[in-house]
Write a structure and sequence with these properties.
Elements lengths: L13 E2 L4 E3 L9 E3 L9 H48 L5 H35 L11 H15 L29 H13 L6 H8 L2 H4 L1 H9 L6 H11 L1 H24 L9 H12 L12 H29 L3 H35 L6 H86 L5 H16 L1
Helix pairs in contact: 1-2, 1-5, 2-3, 8-9, 9-10, 9-11, 10-11, 12-13
């Protein structure tokens, strides 16, 4: 990658006669990059723009690579922390060299993560400078960016460091400690170590950045072009909406499983120091599950403060996931436009048949009632009267259902028409505003043209106006003298 100087006083580019650009600013090892095909001349602005686009492409690749390395380093630190807490009470003691080596590895991964984060923001600032054609990198360092970088570094630097000190209280103890921490100053330091260990999971914020930089939405030129025309900001929220729209069940299932396992292990770590039943993984998974679902039987409860806070957070997250699940299921069970058209068409057809049958039953009962007389057979006459009234009631009920269905279908059609009309009116308003702006710009140009015409006419009148007679006589005498000589 060829580095370009962003300082204002440096001159890193110079164009020679052969269409080549020297990009090293006078160094001994000169590198020339052809800008165009041989035989075609290229201006300095075109060559600088081409190199700017090449540098931007390389910066995007470097930023994506650094983001992937940052996420890998963060996951490595979390994995080392989990391994340390899980195998320390069984395979080695907290004061041994193995524990010190694992903790040093966690700190080393944290240092590498901080370096990757700094390099990532350095590439981001260079990309900002190239996009905005700035020459000073300090222009990109706004208060918001400085605050974001500071918070990110503080989040990434969090890791447990308490086992670096000399504990030595239980070095000769025969029983294994509940967790791999010795507290020679009481339980306060142990609680701090537990808090730092759980806060290491905040590094998972790098997942959304990695997904965003490696997504096909951001890398697709068509997506970016259409998004810029519609003023869409390509951030993780937009990408999350797309993924939830395409794969709603997979996204919710993956998040619920990951949160369930992570919260269960964190609860196990918090409750292990008190040697309670919730210090086991199976019991912790049961407690997190019933808390997440909002059941809360009360057979298992957390005993530590961190465990109670974790269960409270699990309950709130469970409510949010339940709401999202209801929305996803509702959308999946909702008929689309074509399905609604087919369904309502078949309903209307069946209802029309039933209405015709009901009308035929009314006519038949009227005829049967007309055939019988009250004097001849009063019981049969009353029976036909009851059948006629029932047939009329069924006919009115089916006609009412048909009317309601037709009103619902017409309402759906009206909604679609109203949406179409709203879209057309919005387009008309936009076209009207554009036309108004064009008319205003044309009026301004006409005013400028009229002003220029007036100035031109004044200049022409000054050039072609009749001259002074004295000057004309002097010129004629001069011409006569020259001719005589």
């Amino acid at each position: 990658m060829t580095n370009r100087s962003l300082a204002g006083g440096s001159k890193g580019n110079s164009v020679n006669c052969g269409g080549m650009v020297n990009r090293n600013g006078g160094d001994t090892g000169e590198v020339s990059v052809p800008l165009t095909i041989p035989g075609k001349q290229t201006s300095h602005a075109e060559g600088d723009e081409l190199h700017r686009m090449q540098d931007r492409k390389l910066l995007l690749k470097d930023r994506k690579r650094l983001c992937a390395w940052s996420l890998g380093t963060a996951l490595l630190g979390i994995l080392l922390m989990i391994i340390h807490y899980e195998i320390c009470p069984y395979m080695y003691g907290p004061g041994t060299n193995t524990a010190l080596f694992i903790n040093c590895s966690i700190s080393l991964s944290t240092g590498c993560l901080l370096i990757f984060i700094i390099l990532f923001h350095h590439k981001d600032i260079m990309l900002f400078a190239i996009d905005h054609k700035q020459v000073d990198w300090r222009i990109a360092m706004s208060n918001h960016r400085v605050l974001a970088i500071t918070v990110e570094l503080l989040v990434c630097v969090i890791h447990p460091v308490g086992t670096y000190w000399e504990w030595g209280l239980h070095a000769n103890s025969s029983s294994s400690p509940p967790i791999c921490i010795y507290n020679n100053q009481g339980g306060a330091l142990m609680n701090i170590e537990l808090l730092l260990s759980m806060l290491m999971f905040l590094r998972l914020y790098l997942v959304h950045r990695t997904i965003l930089l490696h997504s096909k939405v951001l890398l697709s030129a068509s997506y970016r072009t259409i998004g810029s025309l519609n003023k869409i900001n390509f951030n993780f929220r937009f990408l999350l909406k797309i993924m939830m729209h395409k794969y709603p069940a997979r996204m919710l299932l993956a998040f619920i499983l990951f949160f369930w396992l992570t919260a269960s292990w964190m609860l196990t770590l918090c409750e292990r120091q008190n040697q309670t039943t919730t210090g086991h993984m199976d019991t912790a998974m049961w407690l997190i599950a019933i808390t997440f679902l909002g059941v809360g039987y009360g057979d298992v409860v957390p005993n530590t403060s961190y465990g109670k806070v974790l269960c409270l957070f699990s309950g709130v997250t469970g409510i949010a996931c339940t709401v999202m699940l209801v929305a996803v299921v509702t959308r999946m069970l909702t008929l689309n436009r074509g399905e609604k058209h087919v369904h309502f068409f078949m309903l209307n057809t069946k209802l029309s048949k039933r209405v015709r049958h009901a009308a035929a039953n009314v006519v038949r009962e009227c005829w049967l009632l007309h055939r019988t007389t009250p004097k001849g057979n009063p019981a049969e006459h009353r029976r036909h009267q009851r059948c006629l009234l029932d047939a009329i009631a069924v006919f009115h009920h089916l006609r009412f259902k048909e009317k309601m269905l037709s009103d619902y279908i017409s309402e759906m059609a009206d909604l679609s028409k109203m949406q179409t009309i709203c879209d057309i009116s919005n387009n008309w308003n936009k076209s009207y505003e554009e036309l108004k702006q064009r008319i205003l710009s044309m009026e301004q140009k006409l005013d400028e043209l009229s002003r220029c015409n007036q100035q031109t006419s004044e200049l022409l009148s000054q050039v072609f106006c009749p001259r002074n007679p004295e000057s004309s006589i002097h010129e004629s005498e001069t011409w006569t003298d020259w001719k005589c000589s």
